[in-house]
């Protein structure tokens, strides 16, 4: 984005690195996108150059570094060997991550991140020390404050002949804003910078703000040896209790509204419940009744979610992360509320004075609202044609609209004949340039990338990828956002909730970071700023640590992500707690109703001891049977009908791999507790033979014929768990 008119296209990454160092100097502060948009070959070349040149100082500024999965034991490693190469294909690992995980980063290299893969770095002190806590919308500011002077990201070229456009594809979230800020700084004080793109046509070409002129970048690496499959996150199975949470949340989503949803199994369960509500509404409502929805939460559901019927008008997706669930909602006709970045049009749509079908009334109302002049100017013509109100193929000059036939019509709508001809011959069919999704970045399974790529360009344009400053906040574009985001529901996940209403989502009370705040705080704040917006936090009511069960609703905790004054709605597998506007005692009462009953007495005792709950308070009887067995029966009872499958949106794993994964998960759970592990070990030691029907699974793991005592023990441990997962053939 310097003063050059075209980027320098290079095939040699080493040459590129040398040119950047000559331009910027020996203190490289390399900013690269979070997740899948990293220019891996460029980053690796910078890192290897720094390893070989101690005089070169390299600081990598990034987030969510992705790595091909690696195991921590013989069993995990052999299991991963089954599918890693198949699923992650030619994805090149980042060299700095391999060295960082082995504690061998050189002294002249720092890696600073603002978001971690959840839980990955809990036991890595140096990585913990290099974390920046930052709202997603503040990342560009923080990168600039740290002196970012090089950016590197993946780009997809526009294959249209003669085009000079490229797409930031999965990551226009921060990087394009950063390039603009680095350019402003150079104009102001002369600080040199370099904007680098790496061509990778294996990503989908996305439109919207992601599409920019190639000259936005100073250097572009285009080498077919550097094309690679984007990082695909395998779909994980959905536990039954997360289906329960998804059902409750789905009842709070308002038709004709907006939706933000996070990643992971909880998000998948929620999307599945939305599809169930839309496609099998009678069964969906019956399920809610079985859970006691009307009796316990009926008024709340009607007030927040409206009708729990199918989505007649549809919803609009506005989310920093576009999850593959959005694609499934789009294909099912749930995600169909199209919004426009134009105030007059969006107002008319919200007021239901027009729809997406262009009619003479569309143009008349725009005239009434003074969106265009009665005597159409060039700007008016371009505006009307841009949004499809005037059809393609028309041109404008000297106060006339020219048709392909050669006829011309005066653009003065005050003239009755001209007005009639324009209305009859010049209007388009449907509004154009709308979107069903505004997203900052996307990450998902390989099937998601393939599905986006397979969409015709007209449909792919409905997924508008843009800067997080346009997605995660209202500032600077508040008026249009308030129209687009009506009935907004921001659905995120937390790890703990305190009885004061605070939520813990990103870290532990000992200071260690689990993941990062990301955009969660942004969206919670936005929910409170929108008159009909609501923040919904998903929370598993309890967690297992080895053989111990702990409550995720606690009296207090030494870390907070969402402070108590921003409380709104919390959902567990047992129901819904509305906390907004409630007093301290009312908040406690609401959270106790959705807590696991194994912990309700102790939580109530703590609240009373602190003087925050009256001494004679008792939890209503309909909420004291909050036990997993009761609610999980509802899910289990419908599995034979085909509902609530483990992988509702498909999986990259074969059936045998799924079985092995389930057995390994059970074994890993037992390893966390001596009380569970010791019996498992004793059973393995006294296992004299393994059933023949398990042979295919054990052969896959190279354990059918153990070569040593370690393999013999692991074979028996795994076989005993497989007996539980794989039914014996009759």
From TrEMBL:
Residues 444-607 form the Acetyl-CoA hydrolase/transferase C-terminal domain. Pfam families: AcetylCoA_hyd_C. Gene3D superfamilies: Acetyl-CoA hydrolase/transferase C-terminal domain. One of its GO terms (molecular function) is acetate CoA-transferase activity. GO terms for biological process: acetate metabolic process. It comes from the Bacteria. This is Acetyl-CoA hydrolase/transferase C-terminal domain-containing protein.
